[in-house]
Design brief:
About 0% of the residues lie in helices and about 45% in strands. The strands form 3 sheets. It has a 4-stranded antiparallel sheet with strand order 2-3-4-9, with no helix packed on it. It has a 4-stranded antiparallel sheet with strand order 5-6-7-8, with no helix packed on it. It has a 3-stranded antiparallel sheet with strand order 1-11-10, with no helix packed on it. About 35% of the residues are buried. The structure holds FE2/S2 (inorganic) cluster. FE2/S2 (inorganic) cluster binds next to loops.
Length: about 110
C-alpha cells in the first residue's frame, strides 16, 4: 500500500504573524491559532482543554501558549498540556512554509 500524501492549505503569509505572537484564523470551518517562535510557525486548536478558554488571545512564552482564563499552558509544537489546570492535550496541525506562505494540513 502506498503512503497517502498529506494535503496542505495556504492560510496566510508568514510575515503576517509577528515573532512571539499568535494569530487566529478560520481553517476548515473552525478557528485555529498560529503561533510563531524562533522563525517557525505552529498551528493549534484555539480552545483550551480546561474550560474552553480562547487561546489565541494569549502570549507565546518559552514554546508554550498560555490560556488567558486560568493560566494553563500548552506546547505549541505538540499541543500537550504543560501546566495546570489543563491536563488534556489540544489538537495540533502540521505546518509548512513555502514561498513565504504558511500552509496547514487539516490532519
Ligand atoms: S479555560 Fe484555559 S485554563 Fe481554564
Amino acid at each position: 500500500m502506498t503512503e497517502q500524501t498529506k494535503s496542505f492549505i495556504r492560510v496566510c503569509r508568514f510575515d503576517e504573524i509577528e515573532e512571539g505572537k499568535t494569530k487566529v484564523i478560520m481553517f476548515e470551518g473552525r478557528e485555529i491559532l498560529l503561533a510563531r517562535q524562533n522563525g517557525k510557525v505552529y498551528a493549534l486548536e484555539n480552545i483550551c482543554s480546561h474550560d474552553g478558554g480562547i487561546l489565541g488571545e494569549g502570549a507565546v512564552v518559552d514554546g508554550q501558549v498560555e490560556c488567558p482564563r486560568h493560566g494553563a499552558r500548552f506546547d505549541i509544537e505538540t499541543g500537550q498540556a504543560m501546566r495546570m489546570p489543563a491536563v488534556a492535550e489540544i489538537e495540533s496541525f502540521e505546518v509548512r512554509i513555502a514561498d513565504g506562505d504558511v500552509l496547514v494540513s487539516p490532519n
